[in-house]
Amino acid sequence: MHCYKRAELAFRDVIAVAWTNQNISGSISMDEDGQDLGTVDTFTVNADVYRLQGDFGMLEVRSSSPELIVLE
After folding, report:
1. What integer pLDDT is reported at residue 72 of this predicted model?
2. What is the CA angle 5-53-55, rounded to 5?
3. pLDDT tens across 2-12, in order?
4. Could you tell me the superkingdom of the organism this chain comes from (predicted)?
5. By C-alpha distance, which of 50, 54, 57 is closest to 10?
6. Could you tell me if residue 2 is inside a domain?
7. Is 55 a member of any domain?
8. Nearest partner of 43 among 59, 20, 63, 25, judged by Cα
9. Distance (Å) of CA 36 to CA 20, 39, 43, 50, 65
10. pLDDT tens, 26-70?
11. Residue 1 lies inside a defined structural domain of this protein
12. Of 21, 27, 34, 41, whose CB has the highest number of CB atoms within 10 Å?
């Protein structure tokens, strides 16, 4: 069973960003609330490097700790 919540992951003090295997056109869908870029399938941390992977590709961000903002 899955439970979904709309949220934003805000990265502050970003030092570097790398986005590989980009697949925006294959991951965007529209629902009653507007644009949906898909889900994050994996999220890993190694020191100050955060890796997110999903239908959108692989995003690697080097920054201070991100803030998770849960939307209503």
Report:
1. 78
2. 75
3. 777 788 899 99
4. Bacteria
5. 50
6. no
7. yes
8. 59
9. 19, 9, 18, 22, 24
10. 555 666 666 666 678 999 999 999 999 988 889 999 999 999 999
11. no
12. 27
